[in-house]
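Input sequence (399 aa), recorded before submission:
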Amino acid sequence: MLLRDFLSLTGGSLIAHRLRTFLTTLGIAVGIAAVMLLTSIGEGVHQFVLSEFTQFGTTIVGINPGRTTTHGASTGVFGTVRPLTIEDTEALKRLPFARAVVPFVQGNAEVEAGNRRRRTTVYGAGPEMPEAFSMHVQSGRFLPHDDPTAPRALAVLGSKLRQELFGDRNPLGQRIRVGGNRYRVIGVMEPKGTVLGFDLDDTVYIPAARGLELFNRDSLFEIDLLYKKTVKADSVVAGIKKMLIARHGREDFTVTTQEQMLDVLGSILNILTFAVGAIGGISLLVGAIGIVTIMTIAVNERTSEIGLIRALGARRSQVLSLFLGEAIVLAAVGGIAGLLLGVGIANLLHLALPALPVHTPWFFVVTAEAVAVLIGLAAGVLPAQRAARLDPVEALRAE
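Predicted structure, token format:
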């Protein structure tokens, strides 16, 4: 059988049954579109979360009170022999690889300026926070290097909180109340936006020791250490553990590197992307069943045609190739339509909802089309084999 005849027979059959061809390709198109849409959203969320998580750099180590147990849970503040303190922070600053060490305590409190009040997030932090987290002061300055255990009552406002409390007035030097205590505003931070669900602009920063007093806590929530890029993370962790064990007498804390956080986060997000893709894959299965059904019907309808082709000298392998070719063309065309539909809907969703992250890598596009072709090949095997095995004489007798 000449290639020209092969293409003519394949194309002619598909064109002759336009409605059947359309419905079959539509089934594959819907399946591919569902997979592309869901995986694009899943990958978009993946990329968004990782970018949000890494915008502060990858050389940060977090130290939390309580040692992580073998069961994967931290004993927390209540299970530790000694809490993480301001003194621990000062000791960690003496490590040779430490660029910045930031004590952290967090809570909610009412902030009052004049006759305006707002309940917001309060961060008790250290003066090196802007360096550690790549944040910048818009006006004034950040918390100074006071006595860490008895700092002055100074505050720095997030850009949104500054607008809510002072409007267009200059807040520098003004007095505010945080949780009932008076503070003097010495700075306003540049807009940072929302990071992993936390609005860093709707907040106020006060010294960590004052935060401990405000929230009546003995232990810091966390100590973050920014280390030099030339030092390996393992050496940093070893140095931190040696210092704190010497101070606490035992390892009653947990040290987590940024690489460990990203590994865990990446694994969770990969599972999420795979899960949403698998849900969309159910539609592909439906499309494959449609191809099997349509090709089986086609074999029954074209029995006499198959007999004629075989009587004219076509081999079984050529008849097999003919029907497999039809199935692959149906799946490939449906796959291309599904790709265009899925990517188009994903982009329209992003335009309608800019906050929804959408990302479609070329790897997904190529893989989706390859999967569509493989589905057509697999779904067409049984009907094509049935057609190839028909006896020419018996096939010619069929009506």
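Checked by second reader. Residues 258-301 form the longest helix (44 residues).
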